[in-house]
From TrEMBL, chains A, B, C:
Subcellular location: Plastid, Chloroplast
InterPro entries per the UniProt record, alphabetical: Asp/Orn_carbamoyltranf_P-bd, Asp/Orn_carbamoylTrfase, Asp/Orn_carbamoylTrfase_sf, Asp_carbamoyltransf, Asp_carbamoyltransf_Asp/Orn-bd
Alphabetical GO biological process terms: 'de novo' pyrimidine nucleobase biosynthetic process; 'de novo' UMP biosynthetic process; amino acid metabolic process
Name of protein: aspartate carbamoyltransferase
Major subcellular location class: plastid
GO molecular function terms attached to this record: amino acid binding; aspartate carbamoyltransferase activity
Catalytic activity from the UniProt record: carbamoyl phosphate + L-aspartate = N-carbamoyl-L-aspartate + phosphate + H(+)
Amino acid sequence: MAASSSLFSCSMHMELFSPKISKCPTDFVCCRSKISYMFDTDTLNAIFKVARDMENIERNSPESQILEGYLMSTIFYEPSTRTRHSFESAMRRLGGEVLTTENAREFSSAAKGETLEDTIRTVEGYSDLIVLRHFESGAARRAAAIAGIPIVNAGDGPGQHPTQALLDVYTIEREIGKLDGIKVGLVGDLANGKTVRSLAYLLAKYKDVKIYFVSPDVVKMKDDIKDYLTSKGVDWEESSDLVEVASECDVVYQTRIQKERFGERLDLYEKARGKYIVNQNILKAMQRHAVVMHPLPRLDEITVDVDADPRAAYFRQAKYGLYIRMAILKLLLVGW
Amino acid sequence: MAASSSLFSCSMHMELFSPKISKCPTDFVCCRSKISYMFDTDTLNAIFKVARDMENIERNSPESQILEGYLMSTIFYEPSTRTRHSFESAMRRLGGEVLTTENAREFSSAAKGETLEDTIRTVEGYSDLIVLRHFESGAARRAAAIAGIPIVNAGDGPGQHPTQALLDVYTIEREIGKLDGIKVGLVGDLANGKTVRSLAYLLAKYKDVKIYFVSPDVVKMKDDIKDYLTSKGVDWEESSDLVEVASECDVVYQTRIQKERFGERLDLYEKARGKYIVNQNILKAMQRHAVVMHPLPRLDEITVDVDADPRAAYFRQAKYGLYIRMAILKLLLVGW
Amino acid sequence: MAASSSLFSCSMHMELFSPKISKCPTDFVCCRSKISYMFDTDTLNAIFKVARDMENIERNSPESQILEGYLMSTIFYEPSTRTRHSFESAMRRLGGEVLTTENAREFSSAAKGETLEDTIRTVEGYSDLIVLRHFESGAARRAAAIAGIPIVNAGDGPGQHPTQALLDVYTIEREIGKLDGIKVGLVGDLANGKTVRSLAYLLAKYKDVKIYFVSPDVVKMKDDIKDYLTSKGVDWEESSDLVEVASECDVVYQTRIQKERFGERLDLYEKARGKYIVNQNILKAMQRHAVVMHPLPRLDEITVDVDADPRAAYFRQAKYGLYIRMAILKLLLVGW
């Protein structure tokens, strides 16, 4: 397949999983010497094409059994029921089986200090693929470096959460129908939200993208992303007028202001959280074809009365995540 | 099928599940505008007939695979390993798959306040049916109101636990062979036990039922149920003589005195708990065809030496619960 | 099969599981009046032969489905993610299904005191086999005494952990190719480690075995095992020279010094833990065919640079545990 070769024309840094697996059904997973895939747009498009196939799999069809006989371990060092559910559903929707560990810290506590590496080397004996959530940045890379089976990074601390970024881009493509030429407003906590940082990074792969940053001053987008976008020739601007931005954009991507980032300065938090709310006023300003996205969970930064509007895409976005994860599991275990 | 029409001749209030599902294989699940089923005796009998079929499914028969390709999520906001195990076993005995969440409160804690509604809308994207246990009365109704897939109420706080009530009635029918004309002694904590309250309520649907209440004064059956039984023409009486009641009844339904209801008045608890014990004396008084039931867990309100008597039906009762839950899952996912 | 008869020529005390099951597919599980199996070497060899078959099962082959339609409950009263994962993987690798309870103490807390026996009698209604981990010595025996389905002991407190002992012996047989005439050095915490105690016990079944004990003085092997070995004619000695022992042995079996055993005497712990480390020096002394084993988790009693040596067998040992557990599940559910 043409797209598979592009998997190795690395142009972006986002660790998703380890290609080190014992059998090599396809080129995709055959690159034993590398521990991360670099996504270019051809690769993304190829993955999205597989995800689209996943949307159309019917119950009890042969396609619903393509991962029969495969066993996935979810090893979560910090709980994330939502992400775990999504991966486990994806595995089961393809006929595969799951071993669950919701409290993987117990591995190390029981051991009074077992290393992540030892845990991985034990668990890889029991399963065919590991989905790892860890509290330390770089944990997925460490795991992939010693594992003989694929490691999927389901978020490692302040580091990356690459399947979230993939599903966000896939959602835009499915909802708007294009990525080149897209106008996206990123709203809310842009300083701490890794979702919006990763999304900005991925969008820079596409042509003629325009990005608006709308956030309270205390949680503005950091310079590293701005500089990266500039270096890639991406047009971006900061704005304090959400209504204006909403009227321009194809996508209003709202995020939660994270209270836990404010420590004792609850006054700053209260001031920040109420500043940019997606409500009926914003919907009124938005174009008919535009959508509202949110990585969830949602508090009151999108009012509940928005849910009924067909442009509220955030629950569909969670569902697209299922298809993206089905695609990734399929690609890692049986190839293209 | 004749019975299915009676599902809509609502005469009793017991929320079991949401009929709002996206596909309508049968009449049973087709009633999108309603969010609860009202059980009359025809409906109960029809469900029991399906449960009876479930008892006879053989390992690896085609019937053991009727839910193949279906995925059930158990979302438990408070732990109830017993109930969760029963539902998950039921699903797997029919070839279906399960996604487990034992600590669903984490959904909201991670979210610092995500609503039940948002959790349901996310999880419904991952599965075909949700079994919900919640700490708040009315939670199942709220979930069903927004879900696009069936919600089974596995207990919502001080509210209802409808599958327990169903399995209790099914147990009586299976053990005694009839429900009309039955004599049942309800024993123990009748004030707080939702099991006995729901059972009294359901038994009122049948003819010529006689109910005895035997309980310490501090935990007597409340007037609402007594008034309801009277209004339905059910013969009931209170008694303090368990031996006498045991000799009259087809079913002695014992329950645990719940220590946690007594707060600091442990003296009252100690007095209440020892008052009515099912032991060899009670067995001696009971008729040969009669049985002892208990919703479990059991402490010392039934002595261990009763277990060996064939009239000790409480572990069989737990097993009947499995068949009832198999029947419910089957009806909700593939219809009659 | 010839070996099956030897299952009843009991010569060793190690409770593994209950033979009381409702159906008797083979002699192996038919012995209803006994609650433990006594392993002699013929039995061990027969089990190892089945384990060897398990190593060669291919994905989606008919053999990978021999437990289709069977349901295993894991009831863990204390967490042991590693052991649970191993059993659950074993069950799924044979086509069976799993019900998980990671926090079985909740059974009793919810019940404010439900007995283990009642929990077992409830759960046996939901599944075909129970894997039990408990914090009290003798719990597996109690469970097996009342259960109508097989109970597999996955460790009961300071009592036994028989599948660990089985997999240790299997590992030696697979790595060294023999058990008669073997020389094994047991190193580390020999006073508290039930692994090394059980292993010494099992090795005494074989001919011409030589055992070396190498441990800090505070955690020396206890007299009961030494006396047992002497009574069986097993040659053993204590040594403080790990290099010398390593040069003699086929197997260096290292264990973790358990900090929690030292209470407030952390000075003694620190002195003990550093005394016998398996590192490059030990590897240099070891023969080419010899191996290093460890029950895991490992702290620093084996240095990480040992991992790359082909004689480091501890991760393979974990994998052999999977095959042993597959064999046991197969034997208990469908027989030889």
